[in-house]
Amino acid sequence: MQKKxxxxxxxxxxxxxxxAMQMDHDTMMVEYKTLxxxxxxxxxxxxxxxxxxxxxxxxxxxxxxxxxxxxxANLKCKAIDQLNDYFAGKxxxxxxxxxxxxxxxxxxxxxxxxxxxxxxxxxYGEIAKRIHRPTASRAVGAANGQNRIAIVLPCHRVIxxxxxxxxxxxxxxxxxxxxxxxxxxxxxx
Length: 189
Fold this sequence. Notes:
Largest sheet: 4 strands, mixed
CATH architecture of the largest domain: Orthogonal Bundle
Helix content: 25-40%
Strand content: 5-15%
Shape: globular
Protein backbone atom coordinates (compact mmCIF):
# COMPACT_ATOMS: atom_id res chain seq x y z
CA MET A 1 0.00 0.00 0.00
CA GLN A 2 1.39 3.38 -0.98
CA LYS A 3 1.74 6.04 1.71
CA LYS A 4 -0.71 8.90 1.24
CA UNK A 5 0.91 12.33 0.77
CA UNK A 6 -0.03 15.09 3.22
CA UNK A 7 -2.76 17.44 2.04
CA UNK A 8 -1.65 20.53 0.11
CA UNK A 9 -3.14 23.99 0.10
CA UNK A 10 -5.77 24.68 -2.49
CA UNK A 11 -5.23 27.51 -4.95
CA UNK A 12 -7.93 29.66 -3.35
CA UNK A 13 -6.45 30.47 0.03
CA UNK A 14 -7.02 33.36 2.46
CA UNK A 15 -5.05 36.51 1.77
CA UNK A 16 -2.86 36.02 4.85
CA UNK A 17 -1.36 32.83 3.41
CA UNK A 18 1.91 33.20 1.55
CA UNK A 19 2.15 31.71 -1.98
CA ALA A 20 5.22 29.76 -0.87
CA MET A 21 2.91 27.54 1.17
CA GLN A 22 2.03 25.65 -1.99
CA MET A 23 5.60 24.36 -2.32
CA ASP A 24 6.67 20.76 -1.75
CA HIS A 25 7.24 20.51 2.01
CA ASP A 26 9.54 17.53 1.55
CA THR A 27 12.21 19.68 -0.11
CA MET A 28 12.34 22.53 2.42
CA MET A 29 15.63 23.31 4.14
CA VAL A 30 14.41 24.19 7.62
CA GLU A 31 16.56 25.67 10.37
CA TYR A 32 15.47 26.27 13.93
CA LYS A 33 16.64 28.14 17.00
CA THR A 34 15.51 28.25 20.61
CA LEU A 35 14.53 31.47 22.39
CA UNK A 36 14.18 32.14 26.10
CA UNK A 37 10.90 33.97 26.67
CA UNK A 38 8.66 34.93 29.60
CA UNK A 39 6.69 31.72 28.96
CA UNK A 40 9.78 29.50 28.88
CA UNK A 41 11.91 28.23 26.05
CA UNK A 42 10.31 28.19 22.62
CA UNK A 43 11.76 27.16 19.28
CA UNK A 44 11.28 28.85 15.94
CA UNK A 45 11.62 26.92 12.65
CA UNK A 46 12.22 28.94 9.48
CA UNK A 47 13.01 28.30 5.84
CA UNK A 48 13.60 30.70 2.99
CA UNK A 49 9.86 30.64 2.23
CA UNK A 50 8.81 31.69 5.73
CA UNK A 51 7.86 30.55 9.20
CA UNK A 52 7.38 26.80 9.45
CA UNK A 53 6.72 26.30 13.15
CA UNK A 54 6.82 27.80 16.65
CA UNK A 55 6.63 25.40 19.58
CA UNK A 56 7.31 25.03 23.27
CA UNK A 57 10.47 23.17 24.28
CA UNK A 58 9.87 20.02 26.26
CA UNK A 59 6.15 19.78 25.58
CA UNK A 60 4.89 16.29 24.67
CA UNK A 61 1.87 17.70 22.80
CA UNK A 62 1.66 20.01 19.83
CA UNK A 63 4.29 20.87 17.24
CA UNK A 64 7.59 19.03 17.49
CA UNK A 65 11.04 19.62 16.04
CA UNK A 66 11.40 17.37 13.00
CA UNK A 67 14.43 15.15 12.49
CA UNK A 68 15.44 16.72 9.16
CA UNK A 69 15.56 20.26 10.57
CA UNK A 70 18.95 21.79 11.36
CA UNK A 71 19.68 23.61 14.61
CA UNK A 72 21.29 27.00 14.01
CA ALA A 73 22.13 29.03 17.14
CA ASN A 74 22.85 32.05 14.91
CA LEU A 75 19.59 31.90 12.96
CA LYS A 76 18.30 35.37 12.14
CA CYS A 77 14.87 35.80 10.64
CA LYS A 78 11.89 38.09 10.69
CA ALA A 79 9.96 35.67 12.94
CA ILE A 80 12.57 35.80 15.71
CA ASP A 81 12.65 39.60 15.55
CA GLN A 82 8.86 39.80 15.72
CA LEU A 83 8.57 37.27 18.56
CA ASN A 84 11.17 39.22 20.56
CA ASP A 85 9.18 42.43 19.94
CA TYR A 86 5.94 40.64 20.94
CA PHE A 87 7.43 39.55 24.26
CA ALA A 88 8.92 43.03 24.81
CA GLY A 89 5.45 44.56 24.44
CA LYS A 90 6.30 46.29 21.15
CA UNK A 91 4.26 44.18 18.70
CA UNK A 92 0.56 43.38 18.59
CA UNK A 93 0.24 41.88 15.10
CA UNK A 94 2.61 39.54 13.32
CA UNK A 95 3.40 40.10 9.65
CA UNK A 96 5.14 36.96 8.44
CA UNK A 97 4.97 34.57 5.50
CA UNK A 98 3.65 31.29 6.87
CA UNK A 99 4.43 27.83 5.53
CA UNK A 100 1.53 25.63 6.60
CA UNK A 101 0.38 22.14 5.85
CA UNK A 102 -2.95 20.74 6.85
CA UNK A 103 -6.42 19.98 5.62
CA UNK A 104 -8.65 22.62 4.09
CA UNK A 105 -10.71 22.60 7.30
CA UNK A 106 -7.60 23.12 9.47
CA UNK A 107 -6.46 26.00 7.28
CA UNK A 108 -9.90 27.56 7.55
CA UNK A 109 -9.71 27.38 11.35
CA UNK A 110 -6.15 28.73 11.38
CA UNK A 111 -7.33 31.60 9.20
CA UNK A 112 -9.85 32.49 11.88
CA UNK A 113 -7.14 32.28 14.56
CA UNK A 114 -5.19 34.91 12.64
CA UNK A 115 -8.21 37.24 12.86
CA UNK A 116 -8.58 37.15 16.67
CA UNK A 117 -7.63 40.62 17.89
CA UNK A 118 -4.65 41.07 20.19
CA UNK A 119 -5.48 40.51 23.89
CA UNK A 120 -9.01 39.31 23.10
CA UNK A 121 -10.44 35.81 23.30
CA UNK A 122 -13.06 33.83 21.46
CA UNK A 123 -14.52 30.35 21.81
CA TYR A 124 -14.27 27.20 19.73
CA GLY A 125 -18.00 27.54 19.09
CA GLU A 126 -17.63 31.10 17.79
CA ILE A 127 -14.92 30.00 15.37
CA ALA A 128 -17.18 27.14 14.21
CA LYS A 129 -19.94 29.67 13.49
CA ARG A 130 -17.56 31.98 11.62
CA ILE A 131 -16.58 29.17 9.26
CA HIS A 132 -20.24 28.24 8.77
CA ARG A 133 -19.92 24.94 10.64
CA PRO A 134 -21.85 25.79 13.85
CA THR A 135 -21.86 22.22 15.17
CA ALA A 136 -18.13 21.68 14.62
CA SER A 137 -16.71 23.19 17.82
CA ARG A 138 -14.94 19.92 18.73
CA ALA A 139 -13.43 19.70 15.25
CA VAL A 140 -12.33 23.33 15.63
CA GLY A 141 -10.65 22.34 18.90
CA ALA A 142 -8.88 19.46 17.16
CA ALA A 143 -7.70 21.75 14.35
CA ASN A 144 -6.53 24.25 16.95
CA GLY A 145 -4.50 21.44 18.51
CA GLN A 146 -2.78 20.83 15.17
CA ASN A 147 -1.63 24.45 14.86
CA ARG A 148 2.14 24.25 14.34
CA ILE A 149 2.70 27.99 14.67
CA ALA A 150 1.87 28.80 18.29
CA ILE A 151 1.72 32.44 19.39
CA VAL A 152 1.84 33.77 15.79
CA LEU A 153 -1.42 31.97 14.96
CA PRO A 154 -2.84 32.73 18.42
CA CYS A 155 -4.55 29.53 19.50
CA HIS A 156 -3.93 30.71 23.09
CA ARG A 157 -6.76 33.22 22.53
CA VAL A 158 -9.35 30.46 22.18
CA ILE A 159 -11.21 29.52 25.36
CA UNK A 160 -14.06 27.23 26.35
CA UNK A 161 -17.73 28.18 25.98
CA UNK A 162 -17.88 28.68 29.77
CA UNK A 163 -15.08 31.27 29.64
CA UNK A 164 -12.47 28.97 31.17
CA UNK A 165 -9.05 28.22 29.74
CA UNK A 166 -9.04 24.89 27.95
CA UNK A 167 -6.57 22.75 26.02
CA UNK A 168 -3.27 24.25 24.93
CA UNK A 169 -0.29 22.23 23.69
CA UNK A 170 2.10 24.45 25.66
CA UNK A 171 0.09 23.89 28.85
CA UNK A 172 -2.58 26.03 30.48
CA UNK A 173 0.04 27.89 32.55
CA UNK A 174 1.64 29.18 29.33
CA UNK A 175 -1.75 30.05 27.84
CA UNK A 176 -2.56 32.09 30.94
CA UNK A 177 0.85 33.84 30.79
CA UNK A 178 0.47 34.69 27.08
CA UNK A 179 -2.93 36.26 27.71
CA UNK A 180 -1.50 38.19 30.70
CA UNK A 181 1.41 39.45 28.58
CA UNK A 182 -1.04 40.75 26.00
CA UNK A 183 -3.18 42.47 28.65
CA UNK A 184 -0.05 44.09 30.14
CA UNK A 185 1.04 45.26 26.68
CA UNK A 186 -2.34 46.90 26.12
CA UNK A 187 -1.94 48.88 29.34
CA UNK A 188 1.45 50.18 28.11
CA UNK A 189 0.17 51.39 24.73
